[in-house]
Write a structure and sequence with these properties.
Layout (H helix, E strand, L loop, with lengths): L10 E3 L9 H5 L5 E4 L2 E4 L9 H5 L5 E3 L3 H10 L4 E4 L3 H4 L6 H10 L4 E4 L1 H17 L11 H10 L13 H13 L5 E5 L13 E4 H10 L28 H6 L10 E5 L1 H12 L7 E5 L16 H18 L2 H11 L20 H10 L19 H9 L9 H66 L5 H26 L8 E4 H10 L7 E8 L4 E4 L1 H17 L5 E10 L2 E8 L29 H11 L3 E7 L8 E8 L6
Parallel strand pairs: 5-6, 5-7, 7-8, 9-10, 12-14
Antiparallel strand pairs: 1-4, 2-3, 11-13, 14-15, 15-17, 16-17
Helix pairs in contact: 6-8, 14-15, 16-17, 17-20, 18-19, 19-20
The chain binds adenosine-5'-diphosphate (ADP) and magnesium ion.
Adenosine-5'-diphosphate (ADP) binds next to helix 19 and helix 20.
Length: 663
């Protein structure tokens, strides 16, 4: 059994860079990325190390286990370290026409030997050929791609047995290196693959080409300072084409092509999954599968220069052609004979990471929660990163995804939020308006109270003395009428002053318990109702008893009733309704009068505002009413329409008083 190395976390998110685009979720073949609080996290147990997420994240928010420092430390203390370089290297170092420059640069880092992995691939290819020829009845899945091996052992554990029981070219070359250069030699693999970091413990470290380039930079290693040198033996042969698709077939076909028709090649995250699924379902189980997780190792996530797929391929094949043209075949054959018997067998362990699927009922319940009530609500738009609404729902139920990842759902939610905010905004605006009004009235109240208080006493003296004098003169005397006029007008002034005092809330309230329905009825009786006006009074109260200052409230209610009647000179209807609203007593007065013009609405409660003729209105009715209602800790609200083209004209006054027994 091959020891798996625990280099964790192999792939991880750099939190500050992740911006919830769901691209990594979409591109992860193992669905190993969960979304939590808007951050995409890699779930180590589910990750197959393919590095797709690293490749596709444009914000560079995905990174992988870095071994640069460990390798530098090793090179600093050990002069005998061997580097082995993956056959994809010509696609990485396109800038150097002569591969020997790259070898020279690697040596300059401090490596003693630099060996090609491709000789290992030669050995492995022969082993494949042997297996395929000897066990024609059994069909195999290639096991040279560590991400594919991981995918099968985790998600198709039943197919673990079908993995070709052969080591990877890297593991083979490490065996060769140890046998050729000494068992104690430390080996560092350099290649395009992240998954190799956990494939086996046979190399001591695994560097990607990205890390290698970073080491060159850290150590200021540039091509012109390095001597071009050839790879150390053993030199690889046709195995150098391994990293491109059909690599195994091409390598095997050195001599014959009898197995080719039997092999299905699939590469890239969609294709390999499809091939495995069909193999599992028995559709193609009479074929062997050659699978690569990337589109060939030449497109691996550890490549620094990602490049174009066919250009990368061309660089590798050009290198192989040149290599084979110059290959000392005798020398290769000698090496092959020498190492062909080293054991290349391998076995695999199941690592079942499948999660139990949620039930149809659970999925259905979640759909309801997300507002996806009908089939047509499930758009399968892929915006969440999952292939269908169903897959997204399953991921949510498994705790891997969040509901908010669904774009239509989130848009709907946002729209509702905007509507709600608008309503709240409107409410806030009207409250602000009311606040402004009440502030204005409070200032006026202070002024009015001051004046009223000052006038009240002298006025009392005028009334008292004019009454004394009135008592003293005979009604027939010429002064009597004049004195009478003085007394009447002084009394009128007193009424105005007491109105002002009420408005300014300078009076005290004296609460008594009354039957509010009877009370309103009595107020109605105190007002002369013309014949052309009908009055309807409705009581919807559960409890008629209420505590009010009877005298003051009489004044407030009669003011409202009088105003309504005065607004209906040509007749009409006054509707009075008493009801409970939550904890409050609500009194509504609706008339069918002339209505109040919009521009008058915010002046109604200002003292002395009147639209009535001089002598008819004082403009103190509503301010007084307002003051009285405020003293009762209540609210007064008015709505009106004065435009007959819009609707029936009229005015509605609503008075709400808190549960009065609390006062
Ligand atoms: P006054 O009745 O002395 O004019 P108020 O303070 O009672 O003073 O009312 C102020 C003004 O509000 C009135 O002049 C009138 O223009 C308007 N008003 C009050 N109630 C009504 C109503 N029910 N219908 C139409 N206008 C009204
Ligand atoms: Mg009035």
């Amino acid at each position: 059994m091959i020891k798996i190395v625990d280099r964790q976390p192999l792939v991880f998110t750099i939190a500050d860079r992740c911006k919830t685009c769901y691209t990594c979720i979409r591109e992860c073949p193992a669905k190993a990325i969960s979304m939590q609080n808007g951050q995409a996290n890699v779930i180590a147990e589910r990750c197959i190390g393919c590095g797709n997420c690293v490749k596709v994240c444009t914000r560079k928010a995905k990174s992988f286990y870095n071994e640069e420092q460990q390798v530098l430390d090793l090179l600093a203390t050990d002069p005998n370290v061997v580097a082995c370089v993956a056959p994809a290297f010509p696609a990485e170092f396109k800038e150097y026409e002569d591969h020997r420059i790259v070898v020279g640069m690697i040596k300059k880092l401090g490596f003693d030997k630099v060996v090609e992995v491709s000789f290992g691939a030669d050995l492995v290819a022969m082993k494949y050929k042997e297996i395929l020829q000897n066990q024609k009845s059994k069909k195999f899945i290639s096991s040279d791609c560590p991400a594919i091996v991981s995918y099968i052992t985790k998600y198709y554990p039943n197919l673990t047995n079908s993995l070709a029981p052969v080591v990877s070219p890297l593991m083979a070359i490490v065996k060769v290196i140890k046998s050729l250069y000494g068992e104690n030699r430390k080996v560092v693999f350099i290649g395009p693959c992240i998954a190799k970091k956990t494939e086996s413990s046979s190399p001591d470290h695994v560097l990607t080409f990205k890390e290698l380039r970073s080491l060159f930079e850290q150590k200021n290693i540039v091509a012109i300072d390095c001597n071009p040198v050839e790879f150390d033996p053993p030199l690889g042969g046709r195995g150098a084409v391994f990293p491109i698709s059909r690599g195994i077939i091409n390598t095997i076909n050195v001599e014959e092509n009898l197995v080719q028709g039997n092999i299905i090649v699939a590469e890239g995250r969609e294709n390999f999954k499809e091939a495995i699924s069909e193999f599992d379902n028995g559709y193609i189980d009479d074929h062997n599968l050659e699978l690569l997780c990337c589109e060939g190792c030449i497109m691996g996530p550890g490549m620094y220069s990602e490049g174009k797929r066919y250009e990368n391929r061309a660089f590798v094949t050009r290198y192989v052609r040149k290599k084979l043209d110059n290959l000392d075949y005798e020398d290769w054959q000698k090496n092959y004979e020498k190492f062909k018997d080293i054991p290349l067998d391998r076995s695999f362990l199941e690592d079942d990471s499948r999660v139990k699927a949620p039930t149809i009922e659970e999925i259905e319940e979640l759909y309801q929660k997300m507002g996806k009530f009908e089939e047509q609500d499930r758009l399968d738009c892929h915006a969440c990163g999952y292939e269908s609404c169903r897959e997204h729902a399953i991921a949510v139920l498994r705790g891997l995804a969040e509901i908010d990842m669904c774009l239509p759902y989130t848009l709907d939610k946002l729209k509702n939020m905007v509507d709600e905010l608008n309503t709240k905004n409107n409410k806030l605006e009207s409250v602000q308006q009311a606040l402004k009004q009440s502030e204005k009235l409070a200032h006026l109240g202070q002024l009015a109270a001051g004046i009223a208080h000052e006038i009240n006493n002298p006025l009392g003296v005028v009334i008292m003395y004019s009454n004394i004098m009135l008592d003293e003169v005979s009604p027939d005397s010429p002064e009597y009428e004049d004195l009478k006029l003085i007394t009447d007008q002084a009394l009128r002034c007193k009424n105005i002053v007491s109105g002002l005092l009420n408005f300014a809330r300078k009076n005290k309230v004296k609460f008594t318990s009354v039957n509010i329905c009877e009370f309103v009825n009595n107020c109605l009786k105190a007002v002369i109702i013309p014949e052309n006006i009908t009055v309807d009074q409705k009581c919807y109260l559960s409890n008629f008893n209420t505590s009010i200052d009877e005298e003051q409230m009489t004044q407030a209610i009669t003011n409202i009733i009088k105003n309504a009647i005065e607004a209906m000179p040509d007749g009409g209807n006054l509707n009075i309704e008493l009801s409970n609203e939550k904890e409050n007593l609500k009194m509504v007065f609706v008339d069918t009068g002339s209505g109040i013009k919009d521009e008058h609405m915010d002046k109604l409660f200002t003292p002395f505002f009147t639209t009535k003729e001089i002598g008819k209105g004082t403009g103190l009715g509503l301010p007084t009413t307002y003051g009285i209602i405020k003293m009762h800790k209540g609210k007064i609200n008015v709505e009106s329409n004065s435009d007959p083209n819009k609707a029936q004209t009229g005015t509605k006054f609503t008075i709400t008083l808190p549960q009065l027994n609390e006062l």
